[in-house]
Every structure is written in structure tokens, then in C-alpha cells.
Predict the 3D structure of the following.
Amino acid sequence: MSKERRRFFRIEDVIHLKTETVEQHELDERLREFRNNQHQYSALNEFNYQLDQHQADLKHIKERLPEVGRYLEIMQKQLDLLTDRILKEDDDFVDREVEASLSAQGLAFFADESANTGDIVELHLKLMPERHKLVIFARVVDCRKSTDQAGRYRISLDFEHIHEADRELLVKHVHGKQLRALGAARFSEDNE
């Protein structure tokens, strides 16, 4: 396990997942397309990431020029409605629900078919309950037949090609799930 991988917290989660193994002869072109023409989900995540980065600016504007701040908030809500509408109309996200071990660096899950170590897989993930969607290219780092999952395979992937905004979204998702789990555990202890 690399030091990079240990930097990120890992949670057990239920996600929606679509996978497609990328053939070696297609890889360069698919990665070029990934870098140059962000998928609509990644573009939306980048848009929201930029907004998050400028929340302090918006707060400052609202304090100094309240009418401009209100106008900017209205514009933001309208943009959110438009992007939601566009993505829903163009949503070809076909997936399956899986239990997974998830971090901002990788993913492990059980599948009926095996995978070859070293293969590159294009992942479409939907994080619940927020329904955030991400497109990531990952490398299969391990695939083992499970003894306790009725002959299924445990596939472990490292995220090799991921947009920065998507990684930030994963970090926030994992952190949020951890906070909710800690809160639930404290609540449970307090009620015993």
C-alpha cells in the first residue's frame, strides 16, 4: 500500500456504479478526451468546486453590498436549476447499486466477474444520498475470489485519472459519512 493511498480515509458505503474496461489500444484517446473534454458530471462538479472556493468572497460582497449579494444568490439558484435540468434530460447513467469500500484514492467492491490486475477501468460513480456523479479512470490493483461471497470477486481499484474537483467531492463525501456515523454512535451511546 503506497503512502499516497494512506492519506485518505476509507469508508464502507453503498454507491451506484457502472464499469467499463478500457482496451489498451483505446486508452490514449480515451484519456485525451477525458482531460480535454470533461464529462458533463465532472464539469458540474468543477463548477460547484469553484463556487465553494469563493464562498468567503460572496459573504464579503453580501456584507458590503447586500443587494448585489442577493442578486448573485438568485443567479446561482437559476444556474443550479438549469444545470439540473440539462443533466436530467441528458442522463444516460445506467448503473448497479454496490456495497463498496471507498476513499478519495480508490474503491473496492464485489462483482460476479473477475478483472485483470493492471487493467484500466472507466468508472461512473453516483454517490448517495446527494446523487453526485463522477467519471474516473482507475487501475485494477487486485482481484481475488471471495470465500464468503458465494464465489464472487473482490476487485480493488486505484483512481489514476480523476479531476481535482471530483477528488474534492469524494473527500467531502467520505468526511460527511464519517461525521454522520460518529454522530449516530454518540447518539446511540447517550441513549443507552
